[in-house]
């Protein structure tokens, strides 16, 4: 039997997060390149960003053909959030380059899938990469990541926008907390403890 979904947030009715959604006006357009396998994951946080931010677009795909719209973005003011050796750290106090960012591209997928998208989408190479010198505390406790420097898509975008345009990220973290609460509400206590500690 198919689950009944909320018509607004698109989560199952018993895990609806609508009560915690607060609209946030962001100046920097957020473009999320989402690996198709992420779309159906209940704990995926990209759609929380889409529900909250006034300027956010999710594009599903794996390669250049899927992400052809990248070619229409302004090269000088578009950045890709990806930690490589050439990345500019957004949290470097001396960095003023991020003041001219208009578009932020984020890859939504596991590290392996994100790397694959990067390899199959040469258009991404035309943009500057940005990253963080110091990661904020990971609040996304219900999805285990293999790397210590892992943040959920929501956390990475929230932190980026707070550094680029001084946007208050707290409403996004409140929504993330609501997702965690709803996704763990029916777990046995011993299972919940494993996720939340």
From TrEMBL:
Q: What is its EC number?
A: 2.5.1.25
Provide a Gene Ontology MF annotation, just one: tRNA-uridine aminocarboxypropyltransferase activity
Residue span(s) of domain DTW? 2-188
Q: InterPro entries from the entry?
A: DTW, DTWD2/TAPT
Q: Which residues cross the membrane?
A: none
At the top level of its lineage, which domain of life is listed? Answer: Bacteria
Q: What are the record keywords, sorted? A: S-adenosyl-L-methionine, Transferase, tRNA processing
User: Keyword Repressor on this protein?
Assistant: no
A Pfam family of this chain: DTW
Q: Which EC class heads this enzyme's classification?
A: transferase
Identify its protein family: Belongs to the TDD superfamily. DTWD2 family.
Protein name (database record): tRNA-uridine aminocarboxypropyltransferase
Q: Which organism is it from?
A: Pseudoalteromonas marina
């Amino acid at each position: 039997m198919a689950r009944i979904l909320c018509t607004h947030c698109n989560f199952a009715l018993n895990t609806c997060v609508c009560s915690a959604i607060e609209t946030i006006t962001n100046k920097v357009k957020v473009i999320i390149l989402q690996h198709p396998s992420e779309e159906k994951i209940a704990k995926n946080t990209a759609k929380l960003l889409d529900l909250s931010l006034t300027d956010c677009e999710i594009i599903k795909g794996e390669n250049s053909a899927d992400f052809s719209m990248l070619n229409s973005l302004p090269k000088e003011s578009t950045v890709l959030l990806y930690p490589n050796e050439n990345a500019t750290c957004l949290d470097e106090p001396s960095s003023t380059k991020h003041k001219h960012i208009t578009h932020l591209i984020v890859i939504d997928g596991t590290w392996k899938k994100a790397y694959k998208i990067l390899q199959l989408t040469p258009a991404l190479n035309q943009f500057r990469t940005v990253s963080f010198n110091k990661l904020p505390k990971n609040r996304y406790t219900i999805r285990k990541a293999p790397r210590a420097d892992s943040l959920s898509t929501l956390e990475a975008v929230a932190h980026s926008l707070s550094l680029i345009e001084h946007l208050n990220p707290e409403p996004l973290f409140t929504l993330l907390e609501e997702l965690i609460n709803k996704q763990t509400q029916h777990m046995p206590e011993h299972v919940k403890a494993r996720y939340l500690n």
